[in-house]
Task: structure prediction
Amino acid sequence: MTDLNCIKELVFESDNEACFIERERILNRLEKEFGEYNEPDKYALIFSRLMSEVSTPIEDCDYFAGRVLEEKPDSGMSAPNRLLCATGHMSPDYESLLKYGLKGVLKKIKDAAEEKVDEDSLIFAQNAEIVVNAIKSYTERYAATAKSKGFDRMANALEKVPYEPAYDFYSALQSIWIMHMIASCYVGERDYAFGRFDEYMLPFYEKAIADGASKEELTELLSGFLIKTNEICGRGTHNYKPKPVLCQSSKQYVNIGGENPNEFSKLVLKSAVMNNMAQPQITVLLKPEASEEFTKEVFAAMNKLVDKLHIYNYDLIVNALIKKGISPEDAKKFTFSACCTFDLNYYSYRLEYYTPTLQIFLDVINSKEYSDLEHLAKDLTAALKNDIQNDIENKEKGFSDKEYARKCFMLDCLLHTDTAYKGIYPCDGNSKYKIFNVFCPGVATLGDSLMVLDKLVFKEKRFSYNEFVEILNNNYENQEELRREILNYTRFGNDSDADEYTVIAANSFLDAVDELELKENYYAIGGFYSLERDNTWTVRATPDGRKDGEPFSENQSPTYGADKNGITALLKSLSKLPFERTVTGGLNLTFSQNVSADILKALAVSYFKLGGLHIGISVINAETLKDAMKNPDKYKSLTVRLYGFSEYFVSLPKWQQMAVLKRTQY
Result:
């Protein structure tokens, strides 16, 4: 445990103004050296040179090798350098890495190239060989460093993995970490997830137990692995004072559970509790009846980890994907590689789009005079569809860019094995599933706005349509009494008739997604998720009493302060949303004090039975947060849940700290 605490302190002491200094100096030099070189192996060669020159540091407290030197950028340096810049946002095929090693992966790639004998496949295999050999040489140098420090187990592992298959529990974790670190820190990008971690690590766990290892020993070893994820972006936040590294926004996701939770699933929970740091996020794919014991341990861990563990309704997601046309076999392989964004493991290549739903809604209501909600909702769906379609088509234009694909080759393509074994780039549009995660920010604000329009204009006819729209366009000027009246209406989140309007809003958005014109292997999945856009997008006044520039509703949640009838009423309201048509989006529940594991379990399981999709929690003491804003040095380890992940509270901008304080606390 002493070593774990040492690693934690190294994270807390890290400088968020520091870059990965060796990477930046080397790439700045190579950028000039390769300026006139435009052969297909350009970026693989640059990667090889980079990995041959970076150092191999090991701290005395490290359980696993794989660390990057940090310093503030040199004078005049523009960091981070984007000469190497991958795509990220994926779940690499770590299962194949452990089973075959990079050597075996490379053989499959080369065999495919020899069979196809086309130029692109041969180039793909050539780049793969350069990259694999570079990693092999790098880890061999790391093995020598480990041996010189007397870390024999570490050295023995690095002499084999990740080039060779993993041979035991320790070597499996070492293999994954070194690849994960290279992808995130040296190639550079965010959100490389660990996929179905408990499935592919189970055989190594079982072998370790059979060989005499204790669960306590393995728990600490796994903790030493999980704690390393905090080194990727330190205590920097995703949207404020960005650390000058390409992975500065990266969050690390470990997926466990599903239909067959196992003994290693439980070990992940215990190790995460032992760490209790912002990273990694433990994503539980919960099927309560799959294992009563595992379900119980999930909520025991949630009681301790609070904002660092969240749960998804496994059965709901699988069924929704099957309805989308994805095969049942592949649907069950889904993972979350970002906070509320899913993929089909290494069978998909995914993209994201945050639809400006409220802005489009305001444009629609200004486009003509409406006399009823039905026609308004129909035109809103059409406008949303047009906007999303344009985004997909714009993204599609980049899929055929071979230069982009080769630049992003590195580990993204190497461990995207479904396409790699065919000798093709996933970012060329060649994945089995091309996934577009399409998000609807502000669904509750939209629903409440429809409710007010229906009440004041269509039903009560207190205002003509044009009169009310003019009030909005004037930002409620001289209409404060009306605005106060509107703000006192029962809105979404109280298990009332008002909820039906947010259901209409949600279905209008999902109808737009379902009506998109997509190619054969393209799939658009809608979800109710805002990230920070609820506070950072500037949106004109809306019918729900929200004035120009004020925040709108977050994720799936009601607008701040609208839910007044307690947590069970809130969950009943949310369960009315058409979650059976989507698999993404997040709900953050905020409690003013710690909640027992039994109560958390009762709430979540009941909510999922009603059709709920997701739950993440925060436990917030308002006075503590206010003191942290005044005395940040006292609260360096204090974390809070944001939209689908944890952040260090004192590292947040003030507006975001205030947004956390404004949440309804139960």
